[in-house]
Amino acid sequence: MAFNPINWILGFFSLDIGIDLGTANTLVHVRDKGIVINEPSWVAIDKRSRRVIVVGGTPAVGQVAKEMAGRTPKDVVVVRPLRDGVISEFEITEEILAYFISKTHEQSIVPLPRPRVVVGVPSGVTEVEQRAVNDAAVLAGAREVHLIEEPTASAIAVGLPINQVGGSVIVDIGGGTSEITVFSMGGIVTSRSLRVAGDEMDLAVLEFIRYKYNLLIGERMAEQVKMTIGSAFPLKEEKTMTVRGRNLVTGLPETLELSSVEIREALSDTVEQIVKAAREVVDDIPPEMVSDLMDNGVCLCGGGALLQGLAERLTEELKVRAWIAEDPMTCVARGAGMVLENMDEYGYLLLQLD
Fold first, then answer.
1. Which residue of 18, 193, 201, 244 could cross-link 29, Cys pair, CB 3.0 to 4.6 Å?
2. What is the DSSP letter of 75?
3. pLDDT tens for each residue of 73-109
């Protein structure tokens, strides 16, 4: 890349940022400031122009857009431009990145930021998908873009000894993908990436309520049910929650009380797929690493790690202690930020685009 003195000067005053461009949420980490943005990856767009609409002088991106879901006029639609951890709407993803990069620099003295950016991507993405993320970030205003696999970024944030001899296992459950990875000596020993995660859990809850009770609820309500009473393992005290929706038989509004036992049943198939993948990864671990696994346990991160009882379920299934990372939702963004701060130490972990 040719040297551009203007970009260099702007970049000198810009904030280097780590981004977790997630299917469900986008998080931005800034050096010495921590997580400065944590918003849903939702955008409200005009159906005809496919441009982001403006509400009260602010682009309808993030939490503003999510609050609008299901409540918009017919010429406006609320979308998520990422599905299963990859870009499905390129131009809209570019606008999301541009908005969040600009919002991050609101207090900066540079009106047009040109930051260095490290973006976390699922380990299973193709080179074409990697290129799409890279190009979207460049078009959004980044002067330099690097990509890192999400499990690797999470492991760095958690402080797992991935550069040392010995196995470290991380289970990263996001909105669109679940990834189970074993690290040793700075490399990946074995891994599994499946496009089954938080979104599928929400859909499972929605469909369970629809088919069992003929009640139609929205995606946001399904997510709230999952987060409030969803579980992967029997709870010490089972919970209940009241939901509202439309009865598919009468067409009228209806209120229903659900129990955590029912929602655990609804989530069972999705949880079992994740547990099965983790079991397969553990089965692939070389015998010499078994003692490392028993010493270090299995680290859970990502928003899906917050599902009640998941750590207990994995502990029972794998016969190894599973534990939840501190602030699991922010691990990818924090890890990406740490890479920017220590390029000499972690630079070799970045993905290389041809």
1. 18
2. T
3. 999 999 988 887 778 888 888 888 888 888 887 755 5
